[in-house]
Fold:
Amino acid sequence: MTDSRVRIVSVLPALLGTYGDGGNVVVLERRLAWRGIPVQVVRTTVQDPCPAEGDLYVLGGGEDEAQLLALDVLRTSALRAVLDRGTPLLAVCAGLQLLGSSLAAGSESFVEGLGMVDLTTARLSRRAVGEVVTRPEESTGLNRLTGFVNHGGSTVLGSEARPFGQVLEGPGNAGESDPVEGVLQGSVIGTYLHGPVLARNPALADLLLTRAVGSPLPHLEPGLPEQLHAERLARRG
Amino acid sequence: MLVHRVVFALARLAGLVSRRAGRGAGRTLPGRLALLLRRDSLERLARGRSVVLVSGTNGKTTTTRLLTAALGFAGPVVSNSSGSNLERGLVSALLDAEAGVSAVLEVDEVVLPTAMSSCRPVVVVLLNLSRDQLDRTSEVTFHVKRWREALTLYGGTVVANADDPLVATAVRGARPTEHDVVWVAAGQPWRGDLALCPSCGGAWEELVEPWSCAHCSARRPDPHWALDGGELVAREGSRWSLALALPGRANAANAGMAVAAACVLDVPAEVSVELARSVTDVEGRYLSSRQGDHDLRLLLAKNPAGWLEALSEITSGPAPVVIALNARSADGTDPSWLWDVPFERLAGRRVVVTGERATDLAVRLHYAEVAHEVHPDLRACVQALPPGACDVVANYTAFVQARASLARGLS
Ligand SMILES: [Zn+2]
Structure:
């Protein structure tokens, strides 16, 4: 069965969707549809958490207990095969944490993660909350990013992983003094930024879509999303 | 240490001076001062009175207002009617009350456990739990746990919304035999915070109403009272038409909770329903205001659950909608929650937006494919609309601003 539609897989949105991250999927879907590219969104459940045949995967943020359940059902899923194949995946907040080799969540201070990205997450002594501006790694071709973080994780990257961006303002992966934000490894882009991140950073949405489609996207007239991006960057204090 | 009598006299005096000076802080300043001088002020002021506490994420102020009206049938009642629902607001309200006068107090969901141990309420009314200001307060499951712990130590009556699985779980966890629990099927259309069953931790799958868990025995308790459209139905079959002056499903739910609580305190339902009807304005919410050629109706919606109720209220009519959004600390500084609101339902409506975070809202509407215009303030929004009725929906600080500018007049 062939299908020309671009398939966006929203992984376990009921468990990983606490902070409006469902918006990332809406943004991706609309930005394809507005370009006349057929698109299908699959929102998965615990019965079938990660179908193998997607073009772009999105993992959102979630509360601790929900994150642990998501972790459990994803352990035996097709997610590893999806990443081995090099399919792009955006992981936000809790989604980023569970891709690592270990994390702290709920009453557990050490839980084995999925081990798909070289990072570990411990607990922060004080939650990192606030506006963040980063400069993404040059290879992404992206300009500055803006978002809002709210997490209690202290994430440290291993040697296989690279930071997604340098922090220009606000807390990084391991809290206030950490100069790096997010992670890049293989086809994974991970970040702590909410907003949702793709609503605030349309260029990041288009980068993910370009990778999913595999060719340059038709032009989309800049408008409100670009205005919001500029407005949040210009904000001070 | 100063004796309470002196502390309270000082605090009242400070409130009086502050109000004379026209300072807005007059509402909570006396309470703040009293608590500073005597940490146990709330406990002392609550002693010797019949206290009812009303808590939940949405509907606290309105339910408190309706219940205050109902209990007024039996005698004078004091309340923190301005909505100052932290400990200092409770103390401020009680400072103004004579000894022995009953109190109906709305309490922030975070403060509820402290307020319960200080006030020893005769009734606690638990409306609903959903996410609100995630940057400032905790995740919802944390509130469930703290409420359950507080209820375990509590000996009075609980009036609880049976239709909210989070509320019901907190109550049942503390009162497995359900003694002195009055269940009200008041509805809770919002289910966005139920990732897991709060009882067993299994993935939440809701297939039918009333709710039940697919993995364990948790299910909606049998209600003593239920809402049936605009009617309130008691378990034994009596029905009352609510016919409130306050609009919307959520207010019918608030009234159902208030009537059930009043009944515990021996106010007959027909009396409290009648008194609830007399409530026309709650701190400017649902306020109707004629401004030039426009008839405005003001609504407050500050989180996804509140917005879901507001949407069903405003989409039932054809009037244009003005939405005002801020993200100050009292609102929660991260408006990501906008993406959990089904704004798609506004498609086809005339929508104008304003507020300090109007662009965040505009982008949300853009992706929801809802045509809209952005204007610098409420006045410009209203002027852009054709003469006639319009609904103004605002989140907390935007609502306060809107109420003030309507009071001054837009023209
Ligand atoms: Zn269950």
